[in-house]
Design brief:
9 strands; single chain
Amino acid sequence: MPIPPRVLTVAGSDSGGGAGIQADLKTMLALGTHGMSVVTAVTAQNSLGVQGAWPLPAEAVRAQFRSVADDIGVQAVKTGMLASAELVETVAELLAEVDAPVVVDPVGISKHGDALLAASALDAVRTKLLPAATVATPNLDEVAWLTGVRVTGEADLRRAADAVLAHGPRWALIKGGHLAGDAVDLLTDGTEEHWLRAPRHDNRHTHGTGCTLASAIAAELAKGRDVPEAVEQAKVYVTGAIAAGFALGRGIGPVDHGWKLPRSSIAGRAGKSSPSGA
């Protein structure tokens, strides 16, 4: 059997399964890659928000990373929740030892507004993590947090991208999903621009969109696609996942990471495991 492309996610665990490590691994599987993980933090989380978060020691993060990279190897890396300045610096040092594209999702707050990164880590993200990124994927709140630039319309996206690129990533993907109208993102390396547009779906169940998009980009890069093509393919995937998002619990449900998979096989497995045996 051929070995699938290998993608490593370095992120926090979401006990509700919609974001974080869980979303990353589902995305990687759905896109035909082998997902591996370095858990940086454990969260108690559900559709209503984050009830608690516990960062892992830097030693544990370093050991997980080395175990995977030294034996299995990686063809792309995605980073998400890193929780503290110490973990940001630790992960940045580890990334410098890996010859693979890196997608940095600079996670600061959750979909529900819960803090996922200590305020003291901001400088480390700017000076250590972003320079290690092949692609940085901030949303508009994260752009404001990182650069001070506030985007109120599509015309501001170029200015936001320039401000992010000033911190050292090769490419910046500014996600305009919080703007009115179609979901428009700007991908640029400071020279060439790619505008990605998709219709906005009337669906509130969007938990995990940022994690899913960044993981999809990493998966496509691991397959050998260049950055613009990887981002374009990832945008198609996450748009479909948002359209298929479903209610779960009493709050915001997740996007559907398996929307491209055959539904007949999923339904069949669910039926076999039901209590009635139907």
